[in-house]
Amino acid sequence: MQADLPEKRYYGIGEVARAFDVNTSLIRFWEKEFDVLQPKKNAKGNRKFTPSDIQNLELIYHLVKERGFTLEGAKLHLKENRQKSLETYEIIRKMEWVKAELIKIKEQL
To answer: What is the value of pTM for the model shown?
Structure first.
């Protein structure tokens, strides 16, 4: 899953939750569970997610929701293979995009 967010420096938790089609409580829960998520907080305590936080959320979403990892399994996987996981996830995203484009071409024929 790729979050469909505009290019910005910071994203609110509501924007992020809508992009991933999950509740804001799940985003807050993942923030507590995964050390790689460190959103900045303003004076009111509102979370502001950076593009790198979004990338980490995409990877966590992929591992937990799409591949079926447990939270402990996803944490372990991120600790041991973070760079490899990011590369693999990027390849999967590109392949899904190519597949979608090919389906569009097929439907036009």
So the answer is: 0.70
Token representation of residue 31:
């923030």
CATH 1.10.1660.10 fits 11-108, yes or no: yes
Nearest alpha-carbon partner for 11 in 58, 51, 57:
51
Distance CA 41, CA 1 (A): 26
The tens digit of pLDDT for each residue in 11-56 reads 999 999 998 999 999 999 999 999 888 899 888 989 999 988 988 8
Closest alpha carbon to 79 in 33, 47, 48, 40: 33
The secondary structure element, H or E, covering residue 11 is strand 11-12
